[in-house]
């Protein structure tokens, strides 16, 4: 959701002014100033930068691309987690009943091990990509076949998998909050917990995840998954993690409450992982969206890592949307720089294309904020200051605590109202002279933000 700046351009609105003046008079409860800045270490990589906070940065890998030198060069340099894109699915690993085929998946696992990367196993039980013989089964025969599959595959990879997507995409889209109808679901509602128990018995060392899409914000589908995880935890069904696929585009953008949604699952006592990230688009819009996702993960302690769903745009399952971090030639996109800089601590430069020269050394932009809070509400004023180069546009990410919401903003265009909220310049304050600054503000309900804002810019 986006909202327009609510007040007269360039001026502090009367109602807001009184709140800010209240601070000067010492009448308001909280005042905090936080500054942050930073530029990426040019020598760093996605994996190394994520590793600095104890997280991994992974990618989906296709076995048939392991002979592509450009592909492998990027894989080996940048990534610390590997997910076989299709090679561990049921149709690949058990093409005929009780006849297992691990060659392609083994090649990927072996390659990952060789570069010191870990492996996310994907996926043991799923309604899609089932071999023909499974599609022809039902009832107890299908239930037994599913449990045998989980047991055999998890046993084959025992001790070599960081986390398994034990069950993938078992909930319906839309507002029903129901399970997806599938042959597996028709074997009985307990098929999911049966799969998790079989996986735990076969490989007690792997973390066991439930993985899905369209669960990235709070909605009927994610509420249903949340209720299942809560139920599993209360009954001792083994579940360790929830995967949020995070396939985004213009029709399905990064939700405003993305971070809050990750956090509420984390609060159930599971790890959360971003498992199949891709964002269609280009330039700074795409780069900013990637930054928001990375920032959300960094702000959730139990978010242990991020996996992008492929390496180059041309490797993607939706290549036409150019949704990844490397272009078809293996060049780093603006989205790559944005992700790396966000991993390196925010206050980042965000060039619109890979041909744009890097920003000068030192911070390209800093964001400081002051917050004036009272019971049930707050006003936050943010000051954006340019580094040694003029800015041609800027964007600031702010993370709201769970239950808080932005109700209005001035001198900036907001996207989202809760969780990770992004504020972009409006036309009249896009340009900031070198060393100069501009201010914007927002009002909200609930508790005030306390985490440091991140500032991303385009230089002139
Ligand atoms: O390997 C065959 C090839 O021999 C054949 O000539 C060709 C003709 O269509 O098909 C090839 O197989 C394709 C396979 O990808 C490998 O490229 C399948 O048709 C195609 O359906 C399959 O698509 C995969 C898709 O899952 C299937 O559902 C994508 O690569 C894969 O990225 C995608 O991944 C899923 C996740 O597992 C779960 N979440 C959603 C995500 C995106 O759909």
Task: Describe the secondary-structure layout.
Elements: E1 2-3, H1 14-24, E2 34-36, H2 46-51, E3 56-61, H3 69-78, E4 81-84, H4 90-93, H5 103-114, E5 118-126, H6 132-135, H7 139-156, E6 163-168, H8 191-202, E7 207-212, H9 220-235, E8 241-244, E9 247-248, H10 258-266, E10 271-279, H11 283-298, E11 303-308, H12 334-343, E12 348-349, E13 365-374, E14 377-386, E15 391-399, E16 405-410, E17 413-415, E18 420-424, E19 437-445, E20 454-459
Parallel strand pairs: 3-4, 3-11, 4-5, 5-6, 6-7, 7-8, 8-10, 9-10, 10-11, 12-20
Antiparallel strand pairs: 1-17, 2-13, 13-14, 14-19, 15-18, 15-20, 16-19, 17-18
The structure holds ligand G3I.
Would you kindly provide a written description of the structure presented here, covering whatever features stand out?
This protein has 460 residues and is an alpha/beta fold. The chain is built from 12 helices and 20 strands. The strands form 3 sheets. An 8-stranded parallel beta barrel has the order 3-4-5-6-7-8-10-11, surrounded by 5 helices. The chain has a 6-stranded mixed sheet with strand order 1-17-18-15-20-12. It has a 5-stranded antiparallel sheet with strand order 2-13-14-19-16. Strand 6 (163-168), helix 8 and strand 7 (207-212) form a beta-alpha-beta unit. Helix 10 packs parallel to helix 11 (283-298) and helix 11 (283-298) packs parallel to helix 12 (334-343). It is globular and about 70 Å long. The protein starts with a strand and ends with a strand. 50% of the residues are buried. It binds ligand G3I. Ligand G3I is lined by residues 85-86, 128-129, 168, 213, 245, 276, 317.
């Amino acid at each position: 959701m986006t909202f327009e700046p609510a007040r007269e351009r360039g001026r502090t609105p009367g109602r807001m002014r009184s709140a800010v003046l209240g601070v000067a008079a010492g009448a308001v409860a909280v005042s905090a100033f936080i500054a942050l800045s930073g530029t990426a270490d040019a020598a760093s990589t996605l994996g190394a930068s994520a590793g600095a906070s104890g997280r991994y940065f992974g990618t989906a890998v296709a076995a048939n691309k392991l002979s592509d030198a450009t592909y492998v060069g990027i894989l080996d340099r940048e990534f610390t987690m590997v997910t076989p894109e299709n090679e561990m699915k049921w149709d690949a690993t058990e093409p005929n009943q009780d006849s297992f085929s691990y060659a392609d998946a083994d090649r990927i696992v072996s390659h990952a091990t060789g570069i010191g990367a870990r492996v996310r196993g994907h996926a043991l039980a799923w309604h899609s990509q089932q071999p023909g013989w499974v599609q022809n089964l039902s009832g107890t025969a299908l239930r037994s076949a599913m449990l045998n599959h989980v047991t055999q595959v998890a046993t084959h990879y025992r001790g070599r998998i960081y986390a398994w997507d034990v069950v993938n995409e078992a909930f319906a889209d839309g507002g029903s909050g129901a399970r997806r109808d599938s042959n597996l679901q028709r074997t009985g509602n307990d098929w999911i917990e049966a799969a998790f128990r079989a996986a735990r018995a076969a490989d007690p060392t792997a973390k066991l995840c439930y993985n899905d899409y369209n669960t990235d914000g709070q909605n009927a589908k994610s509420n249903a998954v949340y209720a299942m995880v809560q139920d599993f935890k209360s009954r001792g069904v083994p579940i360790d993690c929830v995967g949020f696929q995070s396939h985004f585009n213009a029709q399905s953008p990064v939700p405003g409450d993305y971070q809050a949604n990750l956090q509420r699952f984390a609060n159930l006592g599971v790890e959360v992982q971003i498992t199949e990230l891709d964002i269609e688009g280009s330039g700074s819009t795409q780069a900013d969206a990637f930054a928001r996702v990375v920032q959300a993960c960094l702000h959730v302690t139990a978010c242990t890592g991020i996996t992008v769903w492929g390496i180059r745009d041309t490797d993607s399952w939706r290549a036409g949307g150019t949704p990844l971090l490397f272009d078809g030639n293996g060049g780093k996109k603006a989205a790559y720089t944005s992700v790396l800089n966000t991993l390196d601590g925010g206050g980042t430069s965000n060039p619109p294309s890979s041909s744009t020269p890097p920003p000068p050394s030192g911070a390209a932009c800093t964001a400081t904020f002051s917050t004036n809070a009272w019971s049930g509400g707050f006003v936050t004023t943010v000051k954006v200051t340019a580094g040694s180069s003029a800015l041609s546009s800027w964007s600031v990410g702010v993370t709201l605590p769970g239950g808080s919401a932005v109700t209005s903003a001035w001198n900036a265009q907001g996207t989202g109202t809760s969780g990770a909220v992004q504020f972009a310049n409006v036309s009249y304050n896009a340009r900031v002279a070198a060393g100069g600054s501009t201010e914007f503000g927002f009002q909200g309900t609930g508790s005030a933000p306390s985490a440091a804002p991140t500032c991303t810019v385009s230089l002139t």
